[in-house]
Amino acid sequence: MVVQKFGGTSVADPEAIQRLIHIVQTARSRDGRGPAVVVSAMSGVTDALLGIAAAAGGGRLEDALTRLDQLRERHVAAARSLAPEQAKGVLGRQIDEQFDDLVALARALAVLREVSPRTLDVVASAGEILSSRIVAAALADAGVHSEWVDARRAIITNGDHTRAVPLATETEAALRASVLAAVDAGRVPVLGGFVGSTVDGHTTTLGRGGSDYSGAIVGAGIGAREIQIWTDVDGMLTADPRVIAAPRLVPHLSFAEAAELAYFGAKVLHPSTVERNIPVRILNSRKADGTGTTITAEPPPATTPLTALACKRDVTVIDITSSRMLMAYGFLRRVFEVFERYTTAVDVVTTSEVTVSVTVDDRRHLEPIVEELSEFSQVSVDHEMALLCAVGDRLRNEPAIAARAVGVLEEVPLRMISQAASRRNITVILRQADLLHAMNRLHEEFFS
Ligand code: ASP
Ligand code: MG
Asked: Which amino acid residue places its CA nearest to atom 8 of ligand 1?
């Protein structure tokens, strides 16, 4: 049996949900049971809900209420189109109750003038609760024996609101009692991704984009044969199509390669899917007959020297130089303690005898960080840098590939070069202005 996770664009409107129904039916008749279905909120809904919470908390109640009305209308319209009878009955009432709660919450936030992470989770979770109810009803209307599963009873997390972490043992038990029980009873369980709750029943969310993560947790928890991530692209591409005009589809990828690429996108790899060796497939819900990208522990040998390129803009490089670092110990610890104090993740690190260079994405605490580092070193900061990363298992055993990659970039000034012990990844930091050129050079060399 498979787990099928559908992203926001794959449940965006009635047409998308019709495609979903077809995909679910196909899996069901092939496997004879399941699938378990995990859905994101309809596209744009989570952003809208977070905007509404911010507006209400900022005292702009009318604005929040108008936007809630629009969202209500969008969900009601989808329900009416997909499951007209239920929209007049139970489903319609559930949608109304959900929005009545949101209106009450918005009013409360406007009075309190503050939005706590716990409240934010209650607001944000509504998107997935609504979409999953509508999808479950739409499947039933199409004759699929579906069952709505409340994600808050299926994914049990710690209390770290807005970025909660699932508790393995509790979640596994909860998934058996809900999702697996439904499958065993011959039904198709449908639950919202991204959402969970604490042991005491407080609603939590897993962090933005967390539905993929939910799909992986459900797949691992019920021992699925495969986890399918249905999205609006054909699969993993050799490069970001916004950067490279015609990237190619990557047919196979190893778990290790996907982990290297995780920083740039979806967190589809929950450690337990890797541990249990459950293949993950990325598929296009608009082209259901495509082959997509399959991620497994040991994919067939790659036909290209590199597997994929990835990049990130808006990276900040911080150089920390101290002659005291020369042959001293404890310097790196002091440096990293500063970043830790300001809960700022460091992504790439390179060092020489007297300089440590690091990159960060998150500039929120840059000022105090630089100030504290300056107490014991000279610090310089460069903005508008970019990170370019080439990933491929073959880098491990074929050193010439790394040399060739750097060689291709000969005229591009590289600010940092890093290759970690995994040797599946070579990362360079360059000026953002050079990124497009560098990506194109590499893509041409390795993928055309
Ligand atoms: N709806 C959530 C978000 O937009 C989770 C997801 O779609 O993966 O972040
Ligand atoms: Mg997503």
From this structure: 209
